[in-house]
Design brief:
Keywords: Antibiotic resistance, ATP-binding, Cell membrane, Membrane, Nucleotide-binding, Translocase, Transport. By secondary structure, this protein is α/β, with parallel strands linked by helices. It has 11 helices and 15 strands. Strand 7, helix 6 and strand 8 form a beta-alpha-beta unit.
Length: 332
Amino acid sequence: MPSSVMSTPKSADSPQSHPAIAANGLRKSYGDKTVLDGIDLTVPEGTVFALLGPNGAGKTTAVKILSTLITPDGGQARIAGHDLATHPHKVRATIGVTGQFSAVDGLITGEENMLLMADLHHLPPQEGRRITAELLARFDLTDAAKKPASTYSGGMKRRLDIAMTLVGAPRVIFLDEPTTGLDPRSRHNMWQIIRELVTGGVTVFLTTQYLEEADQLADRIAVLHNGKIAAEGTAEQLKRLIPGGHVRLRFSDPDAYQSAASTLVEVTRDDDSLALRIPSDGSQRELRSILDWLDSAGIEADELTVHTPDLDDVFFALTGPDRPNQSTEAAR
Ligand SMILES: Nc1ncnc2c1ncn2[C@@H]1O[C@H](COP(=O)(O)OP(=O)(O)OP(=O)(O)O)[C@@H](O)[C@H]1O
């Protein structure tokens, strides 16, 4: 059942009334290397948050801290309202973690891996077998259930890993680079699985190096660079941070085209296709002013399209080697 139709009352102190993840000033160093230099994160319940960053940026370190595997040197975080430092056991009961440190044991079968997980969660045997069968079917692993997990493909192992995580019915799931090394079909299957988890009300915190993945899945994206969040926002907000965005007006009437071209400032003309390109951040305000101007000049364009830079452009602009560290909050 989607969480939005649940009508359970939420008291001010209940964990449900808190963001799924709220972190403040998280810091972590190894020796003299500062990996996280004070990062703040807020992830609302039932959303997907993507932490993007180049190799070694500190994504796994952030996941390990938030999932209680390591302690930060500074800062605080709460998962579903539970403080990491004072109630780590409550945090662990709320979360699931899969990723680079997979829990799958290759020597036993997929089914045995699942049953072992059910045991770890102290489920009664019958319930454990029921959930195992249900999850194996859901992740398309029923046929492979009796085979050793070492014989599974990369995609099957990731699916088994997530199925094992779901045995404990976590409300918040950390996925550390869930599709690294998967072929395109398996990657798309994994995206579908993640979308279904979120439809069921689960919050997903994922790390990825794939910009398309963040673009496809995440409600909000943070780019980690030099230990800080270099930018945070929706994919669209991030794309507006860097130049290159424009509005394209296309005309079929040459007179309308000429009249628009001669009165609009800062336009680039494309006389062959009767199209004009106007620099724009694609914001509602700028679009409105272009439309107002067209209306007041009595000019009708046949087509108006907004072009924003893609996430690759943003990523490279924000994490390039020469980029000084700066904190940019995209449209709060
Ligand atoms: N236990 C450790 N001891 C010393 N240095 C560490 C340790 N764990 C991580 N690091 C260093 O911290 C930095 C961040 O590592 P982390 O694994 O968090 O990065 P990442 O963004 O997940 O990278 P990748 O995409 O390559 O997995 C790296 O320079 C790494 O070498």
